[in-house]
C-alpha cells in the first residue's frame, strides 16, 4: 500500500517507518520543516510538507493514499486543550479526503478514552464520550467520520518509551531536575500503562494492514506501573531524593502536569492481542528508565 504517514519525523512516526518498509509498503511521510523533509528524503521516504496549524495542507497527501496513519500531534502540553482541538481539525480533513472509499484511516488517541470509570482497566470496547481528558476530541472526530462511512480505526497509546523518551515521564523528569527532587502524589499508587516504542510501531502496522472499520486497539504491554515505583527508579537514576507531594500541593509542584500526576491510567490490551496477534517483547518501562542512565552526560 501507499501509506500516508503524518508525524513521520516524530518519536512514534519515525519508528513506524521501518516497520512499514520491511513489510513492502510505500511511505509518504509528513514533515513541517525543511530539515524534516531532508531527513525523510535521505531515508528513502517520499517527503510531504504539512503543518498541524494549517489542516488543509494534509488534504492532497490524503487524497492520493491507499491508507493513512495519523500520528502527528503538537506535544506542547501547556497548550494541551488547543492542541487537541487542532488534532480534531486535522483528523476531519484527513477523513473528508477518504469519503466515498473504503481506504483506512488509523488515528491516535490515549488509553484513557477506554475508561468507563477512573481506576478501572481501560478496555478497547469502551468509548467514553464524556471523558474529561481533552484528547477525547481526537476520537470524537474519528467517530463523526465513522458515522459518515469513513473507514476509521484508533490506536490508543499508553506511555510509550525507550531509553531516550518515555511519554509524560519525560517532562516529569525535567520537573524533578528543576525541583531537585522526584515527587509523586499522595501514596503514589496511581498507575501509568506502558509499552516499548518498537512494540507500538509493530501494532500500527498490524492495525493498518487489517483495516477494520471502527476498531480500537490498545498499544499496552504493562497494564499499570505505580507512580511511586517510577519515582523511586528515577530517584536512583537521577541521584535525587524521592518525596510524597500532598494532593493539595500538586499544582504548585508539578505545574501543568498536575492534572496527570494524580490520575490512575491502567489499561488492558487483551482484545488487541487476540485480534491482531500482537505480542509485545520490548523492555519494560522500568528497564528503559534504568537504561537511560547510560545515555546521560557524565
Structure explained in plain terms:
- α2 links the parallel β2 and β3.
- This protein has 298 residues and is of the alpha/beta class.
- Strands 3-2-1-4-5-6-10 form a seven-stranded parallel sheet, with helices on both faces.
- The protein has twelve helices and twelve strands.
- The chain starts with a strand and ends in a 7-residue tail after the last helix.
Q: Helix and strand succession?
A: EHEHEHEHEHEEHEEHEEHEHHHH
Provide the β-strand percentage band.
15-25%
Give the fraction of residues assigned to helices.
Answer: 25-40%
Question: In order across it, which strands form the biggest sheet?
Answer: 3-2-1-4-5-6-10
Per DSSP, the total helix count is 12
N-to-C CA distance: 45 Å
Major sheet characteristics: 7 strands, parallel
How would you name the oligomeric state of the polypeptide chains in this document?
Answer: single chain
Number of E-type strands: 12
Mean pLDDT metric: 94
Give the radius of gyration.
Answer: 19 Å
In brief, what are we looking at here?
This protein is α/β, with parallel strands linked by helices and 298 residues long. It contains twelve helices and twelve strands. The strands form three sheets. The chain has a seven-stranded parallel β-sheet with strand order 3-2-1-4-5-6-10, sandwiched between helices.
Quick tags:
single chain; 298 residues; alpha/beta; 7-stranded parallel beta sheet; 3-stranded mixed beta sheet; 19% strand; globular
Amino acid at each position: 500500500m501507499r501509506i500516508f504517514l503524518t508525524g513521520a519525523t516524530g518519536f512514534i512516526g519515525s519508528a513506524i517507518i521501518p516497520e512499514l518498509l520491511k513489510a513492502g509498503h510505500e511511505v509518504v511521510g509528513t514533515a513541517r520543516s525543511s530539515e524534516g523533509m531532508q531527513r525523510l528524503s535521505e531515508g528513502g521516504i517520499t517527503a510531504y510538507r504539512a503543518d498541524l496549524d494549517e489542516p488543509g495542507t494534509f488534504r492532497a497527501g490524503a487524497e492520493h493514499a491507499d491508507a493513512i496513519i495519523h500520528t502527528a500531534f503538537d506535544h506542547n502540553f501547556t497548550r494541551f486543550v488547543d492542541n487537541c482541538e487542532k488534532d480534531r481539525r486535522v483528523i476531519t480533513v484527513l477523513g473528508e479526503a477518504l469519503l466515498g472509499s473504503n481506504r483506512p484511516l488509523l488515528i491516535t488517541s490515549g488509553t484513557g478514552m477506554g475508561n468507563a470509570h477512573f481506576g478501572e482497566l481501560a478496555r478497547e470496547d469502551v468509548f467514553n464520550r464524556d471523558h474529561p481528558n481533552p484528547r477525547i476530541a481526537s476520537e470524537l472526530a474519528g467517530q463523526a467520520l465513522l458515522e459518515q462511512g469513513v473507514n476509521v480505526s484508533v490506536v490508543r497509546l499508553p506511555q510509550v518509551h525507550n531509553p531516550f523518551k518515555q511519554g509524560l515521564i519525560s517532562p516529569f523528569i525535567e520537573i524533578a531536575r528543576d525541583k531537585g527532587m522526584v515527587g509523586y502524589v499522595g501514596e503514589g499508587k496511581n498507575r501509568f500503562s506502558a509499552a516499548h516504542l518498537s512494540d507500538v510501531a509493530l501494532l500500527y502496522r498490524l492495525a493498518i494492514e487489517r483495516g477494520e472499520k471502527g476498531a480500537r486497539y490498545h498499544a499496552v504491554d504493562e497494564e499499570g506501573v505505580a507512580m511511586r515505583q517510577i519515582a523511586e527508579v528515577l530517584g536512583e537514576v537521577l541521584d535525587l531524593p524521592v518525596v510524597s507531594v500532598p494532593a493539595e500541593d500538586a499544582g504548585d509542584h508539578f505545574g501543568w502536569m498536575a492534572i496527570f500526576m494524580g490520575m490512575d491510567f491502567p489499561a488492558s490490551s487483551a482484545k488487541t492481542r487476540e485480534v491482531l496477534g500482537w505480542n509485545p517483547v520490548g523492555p519494560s518501562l522500568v528497564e528503559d528508565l534504568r537504561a537511560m542512565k547510560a545515555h546521560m552526560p557524565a
